[in-house]
């Protein structure tokens, strides 16, 4: 995901969090506002779970896998927090503390999972075992709350309990340690998205600090904490989508693209790649006129290498010649293998500079031959075509012209050899 797309995503989530949700709070009351904030975070968690688990086979990113699973189970606690919230009236026989207990359980699970995930880089994980582990932990937390084993977190008329405040500070401490751990992992992850997850932790930590200050479940500070938490969750979502989805698929498509434009044996451009690259050069020449020269090359007596030493040795000779080309031309020149022992160099230069490059290549070939007795009979024949400024000549026409001159050069060599 490019920078502009990333900024657009952040801006969209910021608008939803700090403009749309407060509008519902002001016009429809706190309960609907709270219901919407919690359900948004639950939907984000579901998205993370789907992305993280379904793309693990491609991304092999254990951090993303672990976070995505942990947030799914945290969202279960979030759902129970929403259903038991004061005023909802959906669960009978509960007190005001239960929703806060589910909140603390959720945040402890999330923050500890984020921290633990930073220790999982390059470790092999089995998804079903992680799911089983989180199932047991989540079930134990839910059971402890409903059986009143979990410590009370809120008391009507009194406010937050010491346990609740200490737990919030524990979440803050884990967030700080996670930030430190992320600094060490920045070389393995996309730096821009390390910053995204870091900001997610910062906003989440800020939310926890605010949650230590409110006195009633409907007051301003409690609402502000929920807004900060929603924005933090959205940033975690962006991180998971990038690392679990964008990056592996972008990498896969880049590999496919490279295979489509590269010769598999030598790694040089193939004909399709040459056509694509030269098209860009020709389009640029419409605004900035330039001369282009094309050298078509053919290895003389290449068949003798295959006949005398086998096709594996012939393949090796082609690979070596590709490296000779790379040493002989500039990094911005284009050179390709277009078939068999036929190669092409495409230069944005006049004939003089191209002839100099040709001479440089001939010297490099002689050095190559001297260094390997199995290459002693090889030579290189050339055919050149020129596309002057303002010309509309295509790559195909340049190749055809260079091919005719190449055949003439080989014919002349053959004639000299017979004499």
Spell the H/E element sequence.
Answer: HHHHHHEEHHHHEHHEEHEH
CA-CA gap between termini: 64 Å
Principal-axis shape: elongated
Beta-sheet strand percentage? 5-15%
Total helical elements: 14
| Lateral arrangement of strands in the main beta sheet | 4-5-3-6
Structural class per helix/strand content? alpha+beta
Percent in helix: 55-70%
How many independent structural domains? Answer: 2
Provide mean pLDDT, rounded.
88
Give the CATH topology of the largest domain: Rhopdopsin 7-helix transmembrane proteins
Looking at the overall shape, the CATH architecture of the largest domain is Up-down Bundle
Largest sheet: 4 strands, antiparallel
Gyration radius, to the nearest Å? 33 Å
Report the uncertain regions.
Answer: none
The number of strands is: 6
CATH class of the largest domain: Mainly Alpha
């Amino acid at each position: 995901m490019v920078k502009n797309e990333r900024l657009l995503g952040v801006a969209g989530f910021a608008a939803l969090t700090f403009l749309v949700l407060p509008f519902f709070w002001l016009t429809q009351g706190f309960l609907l506002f709270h219901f919407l904030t919690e359900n948004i975070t639950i939907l984000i968690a579901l998205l993370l779970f789907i992305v993280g688990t379904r793309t693990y086979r491609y991304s092999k990113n254990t951090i993303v896998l672990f976070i995505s699973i942990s947030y799914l189970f945290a969202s279960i606690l979030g759902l129970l927090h929403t259903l038991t919230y004061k005023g909802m009236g959906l669960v009978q026989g509960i007190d005001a503390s239960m929703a806060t207990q589910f909140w603390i359980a959720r945040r402890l699970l999330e923050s500890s999972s984020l921290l633990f995930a930073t220790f999982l880089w390059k470790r092999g994980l089995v998804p079903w075992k992680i799911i089983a582990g989180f199932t047991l932990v989540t079930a134990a937390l839910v059971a402890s709350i409903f059986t009143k084993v979990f410590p009370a977190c809120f008391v009507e008329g009194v406010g937050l309990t010491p346990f609740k405040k200490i737990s919030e500070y524990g979440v803050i401490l884990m967030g700080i340690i996670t930030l430190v751990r992320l600094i060490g992992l920045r070389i393995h992850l996309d730096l821009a998205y390390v910053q995204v997850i870091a900001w997610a932790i910062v906003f989440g930590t800020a939310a926890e600090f605010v949650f230590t200050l409110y006195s009633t479940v409907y007051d301003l500070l409690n609402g502000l904490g929920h807004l900060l938490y929603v924005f933090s969750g959205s940033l975690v979502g962006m991180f998971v989508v990038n690392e679990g989805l964008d990056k592996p698929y972008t990498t896969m498509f880049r590999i496919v693209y490279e295979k489509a434009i590269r010769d598999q044996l030598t790694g040089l451009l193939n004909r399709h790649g040459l056509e694509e690259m030269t098209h860009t050069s020709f389009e640029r020449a419409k605004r900035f006129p330039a001369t282009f020269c094309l050298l078509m090359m053919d290895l003389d007596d290449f068949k003798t290498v295959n006949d005398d030493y086998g096709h594996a040795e012939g393949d090796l000779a082609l690979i070596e010649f590709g490296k000779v080309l790379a040493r002989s031309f500039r990094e911005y020149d284009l050179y390709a293998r277009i078939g068999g022992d036929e190669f092409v160099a495409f230069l944005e230069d006049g004939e003089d500079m191209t002839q100099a490059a040709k001479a440089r290549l001939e010297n490099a070939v002689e050095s190559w031959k001297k260094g390997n007795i199995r290459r002693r009979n090889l030579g290189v024949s050339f055919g050149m075509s020129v596309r002057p400024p303002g010309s509309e000549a295509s790559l195909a026409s340049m190749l055809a012209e260079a091919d005719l001159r190449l055949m003439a050069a080989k014919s002349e060599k053959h004639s000299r050899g017979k004499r």
